[in-house]
Amino acid sequence: MIIEMAASTFLTFGSVTTQGASEAAQFVAAEAERGRWHLQDSYALGLGGKGVFSELYSVANSCLVGNWDGYGAAPVSADVYALACQFLRALPLGIAAPSVGAEPDGQLTLEWYRSPRRLLSVSISPEGDLHYAALLGPNRAYGTEAFFGDAPRTILDLIHRVQAT
Amino acid sequence: MRLWGIHREIARPAEVQRLGLRFINRLLLPPKYMDFEDYLKAPPKVPDGLDLPFHGFFHNETLAVTGHPYAINIIRTIQRPQPPEHGRIGIILDNDVFTVEPFEFQQEILERRLAEMRWLKNKAFFGIISEKALATFQ
Which residues of A are less than 8 Å from B75 in CB distance? Predict the structure, then answer.
């Protein structure tokens, strides 16, 4: 048996299967989700166990109504919250936990912070776009990736580079 | 491909971001039958020293196809008896071949990739089921 442990392998392919509409496909999807949630709840591997989903809910809930910052901020919609949950669930198990924040334009932001010169911020828009900006020592990376259910490899690569020792 | 043709006419996609080919098969076992070894080449095993019956299992392997932009997601699980198949457990075999490497839309590229993916799907399917399981499809 060969187990390919190079990080690039995990970055290349997402965890989301091809969508299916049949009863069997829905059964498999539900079972897979149940299994993933079981692992997501673990302290060692899962973002659920690390409290990220609770933090996301808390932030989104506190920004449900417009002007939540006292400066006319747009509300965080249920759609943005759902997309953020979906994006977090699409991340590989064992990945470092981000901190969660909200922006005045109603987007939710996930931030992986290692040092002032080594960080990544990903903002989730209501349209399903992931706007990212990273500082990696002297280098910068920024752009937008459409989110179709799989965590984009560009962003996975940046998370890996921010966390790399 | 008929629906894809309609989508292509309306949306006129310039690029394909993800392409997947997924087949799900269900093998119905005889009533009260739980000997998976007869049907799967690599059946689930109980831990040594625990001779207990299975209540369920869910195996998921993702294989990267070296040198090609494809991955194969293989799921084997069981579905408890569904009416009207009282007492008959189903083994679900889910083979999903996909690529997340974007490519410019051209019909010939799409068809070539689908043909390659179908070959991989068949290879995976026939590699996990036994002759006895194969006979149930004939």
Answer: 17, 28, 32
Question: CB pairs below 8 Å between A and B: how many?
Answer: 56
Residue B24, chain A, CB below 8 Å: the answer is yes
Q: Tell if the pTM clears 0.90, that is, is over it.
A: no
What are residue A135's DSSP bridge partners? Answer: A119, A140
Q: Do A28 and B77 touch (CB under 8 A)?
A: yes
- For the purposes of burial, counting CB atoms within 10 Å of the CB of B6, is it exposed (0-12), middle (13-18) or buried (19 or more)? exposed
Domain count, chain B: 1
Angstroms from A155 CA to nearest CA on chain B: 14
Nearest to A32 among B26, B75, B98 (CB): B75
Cβ A101 vs Cβ A111: under 8 Å: yes
B119, two tokens: 């070959």
State how far the Cα of B99 lies from the Cα of A10, in Å rounded to an integer: 14
3-state secondary structure of A161: helix
> What does each C-alpha distance from A88 to A98, A109, B30, B73, B137 come to in angstroms?
9, 11, 41, 20, 40
Please give the radius of gyration of chain B, using alpha carbons only, rounded to the nearest integer: 19
Suggest the residue from B3, B25, B57, B75 to mutate for an interface test with chain A (most A CBs closer than 10 A): B75
ipTM of the predicted structure? Answer: 0.71
* A chain contacts of residue B62, beta-carbon cutoff 8 Å: 13, 15
pLDDT in tens, chain A (165 residues): 555 544 444 445 555 678 788 888 888 888 888 887 777 778 777 888 889 999 999 999 999 999 999 999 999 999 999 999 999 988 888 889 999 999 999 999 999 999 999 999 999 999 999 999 999 999 999 999 999 888 888 999 999 999 886
Interface of B with A in 109-138 (CB under 8 A): none
Token pair belonging to B36: 């998976």
Give the residue numbers spanning the domain of B60.
Answer: 2-135
